[in-house]
Design a protein that fits this description.
The protein is built from 10 helices and 7 strands. By secondary structure, it is an alpha+beta fold. The chain folds into 2 domains: about 120 residues, Beta-Lactamase, CATH 3.30.450.30; about 100 residues, no CATH class. The strands form 2 sheets. The protein has a 5-stranded antiparallel β-sheet, sandwiched between helices. A two-stranded antiparallel ribbon has the order 6-7. Helix 1 runs antiparallel to helix 4.
Length: about 230
């Protein structure tokens, strides 16, 4: 099971990230939200150990707010504490089932669990679905300044001439589509593939900036969510 237990838990709707603490060890956060991965773990780590020290022994759960997220500390056996980061979504029975599996695995194998948490990458790679949706949001935003035909041309001409990129088709509405099995949308990309996608975005922004004054600044300020900016922009 190993890291699959952790990943299954992170796939529960509403879960942003997770960390495992043992004694006074510094927490190592794992999140599928790129926006959280950029700087926020360090801010949260600064005071988390002091918070842990204040939890009375009889308390198994402690909740508090951090930025836009809800932080929940769960005390496990053997002096282990799991920190769960949630968003504003409703948590349903899927969370309960996944959390019980996670808890059983950690408490049965505490040493292995700590090793597996340490081995997880702190900035996980995105899915194709997330990249395409973010880029399509950028394309839709750009219709406020350019015609769809121009946007479509810019998307096609700025796409890197690499074989892997040929699976992305630009339709007449200026939207990017994946050619082939839709199940491919759920696949994560490699670091190199992610960089290719970002290069495509950068070239598209450069082309649009030649036609729209301050386009890059407009994108940074208004076009994308923090998560989408972390996915697409350098």
């Amino acid at each position: 099971m190993n890291q699959e237990v952790i990943r299954d838990f992170l796939n529960v709707p509403g879960i942003v990230g997770i960390a495992l603490l043992s004694g006074q060890s510094q927490p190592v956060f794992y999140s599928h939200d790129p926006a959280f991965s950029q700087g926020q773990p360090e801010l949260l780590s600064q005071g988390i150990l002091q918070v842990v020290e204040t939890i009375p022994p009889e308390y198994e759960v402690l909740e508090f707010r951090f930025s836009k997220n809800q932080i929940v500390l769960h005390r496990f056996a053997r002096n282990l504490i799991v920190l769960v980061i949630k968003d504003e979504s409703r948590i349903d029975e899927t969370f309960v089932d996944a959390f019980q599996r996670l808890r059983a695995w950690i408490e049965q194998n505490p040493a292995i669990a700590l090793e597996q948490f340490q081995a997880l990458p702190t900035a996980p790679l995105p899915r194709l679905k997330d990249l395409i949706e973010a880029f399509n949001q950028l394309s839709q935003f750009t219709t406020n300044y350019l015609g769809v035909a121009v946007i479509t041309n810019y998307l096609k001409s700025s796409r890197p001439a690499i074989e892997w990129m040929e699976q992305f088709q630009v339709n007449r509405s200026g939207q990017i589509q994946l050619i082939g099995e839709l199940s491919g949308l759920e696949q994560t990309v490699s670091a190199q593939e992610h960089e290719l996608f970002r290069r495509w975005v950068a070239q598209f922004i450069r082309r649009c900036s030649q036609a729209v004054r301050d386009y890059a600044a407009l994108v940074e300020q208004n076009a994308l969510t923090d998560t989408q900016k972390a996915l697409l922009l350098p």
